[in-house]
Amino acid sequence: MSVNCPTCGKLYKSKHFVNHMKDKHGWTRAEAEIYYVAPLPENIPDVEMDLMQCPFCGVEIPSNLIVCWGCGECVDSHIRELAEMYRRG
Q1: CA–CA dist 85, 73 (Å, integer)
Q2: Interatomic CA distance for residues 25 and 71, integer angstroms
Q3: Residue 24 CA to its chain's centroid (Å)
Q4: Predicted structure pTM score
Q5: What letter does residue 41 receive in the DSSP assignment?
Q6: Distance of CA 88 to the CA centre of its chain
Q7: Distance CA 48, CA 25 (A)
Q8: pLDDT for 39-73, tens place per residue?
Q9: Which secondary structure element, helix H or strand E, spans residue 37, and what is its range?
Q10: What tens digit of pLDDT does each residue of 11-38 get?
Q11: What 8-state DSSP symbol labels residue 19?
Q12: Is residue 17 a contact partner of residue 3, using CB atoms and an 8 Å limit?
């Protein structure tokens, strides 16, 4: 899978994209990896997909997303439950 750099528009594979964003644009590794895994809507090709509204911010997102790209909240109920159990210990 490849992704376009949001700053300069060049196309990169995952490892090269992360390094490019760190070296050329000052992003952290985590920021680049999150962008690569969950790109912004304008970087997703036009394909038909099931949509849902984020229960936290109301942005329309693909139903298979784990983290809303509008507000950054986890929208997957199973993962939210696991995270809550982990926090409680």
Answers
A1: 17
A2: 23
A3: 20
A4: 0.45
A5: G
A6: 26
A7: 32
A8: 555 555 556 778 999 999 999 988 888 888 888 88
A9: helix 29-37
A10: 887 778 888 888 888 887 777 776 766 5
A11: H
A12: yes
